[in-house]
Amino acid sequence: MFAARAEIVANVWKIVAREGDQVGVGDVLAVLESMKMEIPVYAEASGFVSKVLVEVGQIVQEGDPLIEIDESHA
Amino acid sequence: MTQLDTPSVVSAPDQADHRSTLTQRRQDRFARVEPKGKRVFTARERAEMLVDDGSFVEMTPLRTAGGGAGSGVVAGWGTTDGHAVVVVSHDAAVASGAIGAVMADAIMKAQRFAIDKGYPIVYINDSGGARIHDGIFALHGCGGIFANNIEAQQRIPQISLIIGPCAGAAAYSPALTDWTIMVKEQGQMFLTGPEIVKAATGEDATAEEIGGSALHTKVSGVAHLEVDSEEEAFHATRLLLSFLPTHKGGPQKRHSSVPANPGAVERLPGLVPDKSSVVFDMNALLDGVLDNGARLELMPTHAPSILTLFGRLDGHAVGILANQPNARGGILDAKASVKAARFVEFCGRFDLPVLTFVDVPGFLPGTVEEGRGVITHGAKLLKAYVETKSPKLTVVVRKAYGGAYIAMGSASLGADVNWAWSGSEIAVMGPGGAVALLHRRALKAAEEPAKLRDELAAVYREEVARPYIAAEAGIVDDVILPEETRDRMAAALRMLTHESSL
Are residues B75 and B154 in the same domain? Predict the structure, then answer.
């Protein structure tokens, strides 16, 4: 199990990945908004999206898990 | 009888005797002791590998700390790319490299030599710390090494390699040097190892967890580069030395100019997205400006929102600072400030020109950063720029807002030449934030506040934030195009390093 985490305190601006999606390393899973910057959240593992843990508009802290990827089904 | 004739007073058998004694002494001392654990090479082999082939000369090779073994350190000098360097290599085959009184004295002798003669020093660390059997004499020796480390800071570059488990004194000394390189899964740095940690606090942790390269190059920032092998550590050290003068005030290493990467030059004018919120890779921008040749990025995985690297521009060795929009939006925070300040301060100490490429959304605000002391750490960056007297060239490539504008090598902090790209924005805050403050009432009353905000932000961007106000006031020296950057910087460097009087 791999969790894509917020690299900075931010507002969740877009969620690109949906539960069940197949994703590969480097795919954009979500976009955070912080300091007026659009900060992409990338998949660092391949697999399928097992859980989206946040909603658009939610405030997340640095290190918070955002999206879980199940690598066993890669 | 000439000077070349051998005096007949020495009989042949006597001569054979003292020659064979020396041969035996050398054989005993230089006998290879198979390295233990993950170690691949002996202390002497490491020193020899670091320097140019055949150039290593060992100081006091017959010195002993007793018991027929060596002093615990192989110290000497050699050359890298033909430039002299002093090397200190801990010998883990003698009491696990633990620093006793004799070993400390041998290290201090090498430090003294480097400081007095003005040569860089490389410490190859592989030591468990102070030698317990030597008691206070060991501690006194370690303290002496630290004092020399600190004296050396104002005189010569110091590089530390961590190639084994380094505890206590063997971890503190590197912290007093300029750059620390760790070999992955082989080198560790900690105050004390797992057993004493367990005894002292009850914490159960492995040596890798307490002081491995992952911890120190990503989280703590204690070390500045992680490499995969001993050979790579030596290669990185030689590369690092290739950018540095041998001592403070010594001549800079000037190479012949190499044009920037042609593909990157072609992409440069359209590289930076117009929309200031969209991220891009600052490395691609640097490729289009710097000489297409060797570079060394330090602390690549710690506070990655700012890049710190050595490279060349028009053949001059330069230190480069650049915000990295691709990491955390390129913000400045406490860690990024410390990283940047340390780098600028180093460049200043050794007269390396500082090139600053700015695209910064600001200092990251909030409880977490304030708690980390972002004010104090940010102030260190301001201080480093002001105190640095080497040539300072700054170019704003997209946006520079607020305090972060000032901190990134601005004119007010003493940059010699400042430029701004024609599409850049320089303002007290970004258009979105500024409009929200300046037009609070109008936005509150508006039927479509979002639409009005965007319109007002666009006006603000064009009328207030464009770099012409700064250029008209002389706060930036000129507004330039991306493709003009390299030539402008090269001309400024020639002038500032007294290579031409223009």
Answer: yes
pLDDT 10s digits, B372-383: 999 999 999 999
Best B279, B328, B359, B367 member to test A by mutation, with max A CBs in 10 Å, is: B328
CB neighbours (10 Å) of residue B5?
A: 7
B286 occurs within a structural domain? yes
> How big, in percent rounded to 5, are the helix, strand and coil portions of chain B?
45, 20, 35
From chain B, pick out residues whose CB is under 8 angstroms from the CB of A62. 368
Q: Which chain A residues are closer than 8 Å to B361 by Cβ? A: 35-37
- CATH code, A17: 2.40.50.100
pLDDT tens sequence across B45-82: 999 999 999 999 999 999 999 888 899 999 999 999 99
Cβ within 8 Å, pair A36-B277: yes
Beta bridge partner(s), residue B264: none
Contact B424, B396 (CB under 8 A): yes
When pLDDT is averaged across residues B486-498 and rounded to a whole number, the result is 96
Task: Please tell me the distance in Å from A67's CA to the nearest CA on chain B.
Answer: 18
Question: Do the beta carbons of residue B424 and residue B323 sit within 8 Å?
Answer: no
Same domain as B224, residue B342: no
Containing structural domain, residue A49: 2-73
Please name the residue of chain B whose CA is at the shortest distance from the CA of residue A8.
B328
CATH of the domain at B386: 3.90.226.10
Tell me whether residue B82 is in a domain. yes
Average confidence score pLDDT of chain B: 94
Predicted local confidence at residue B430, as pLDDT: 83
Side-chain half-sphere of B418: how many Cα atoms within 13 Å?
A: 24
Q: Is the CB of A9 less than 8 angstroms away from the CB of B329?
A: no
B411 secondary structure, DSSP code: G
Domain boundary among the residues B211, B242, B273 is at B242
Q: Which residue of B has its CA nearest to A34?
A: B329
In this structure, the answer to whether residues B74 and B199 fall within a common structural domain is yes
- Helix, strand or coil for residue A31? strand
Q: Is the pLDDT of residue B14 over 80?
A: no
CB count within 10 Å of CB B451 equals 10
Q: Which domain holds residue B112?
A: 19-242
A72/chain B closest Cα distance in angstroms? 25
- Here the tokens at position B79 are 């050359």
User: Which residues of chain B neighbour A13 with C-beta distances below 8 Å?
Assistant: none
B223 with B322, same domain: the answer is no
| Residue finishing a domain among B213, B242, B271 | B242
pLDDT, tens digit, for every residue of A16-60?
999 999 999 999 999 999 999 999 999 999 999 999 999 999 999
Place B428 in a pLDDT band, splitting at 50, 70 and 90.
Answer: confident
Our count of domains for chain A comes to 1
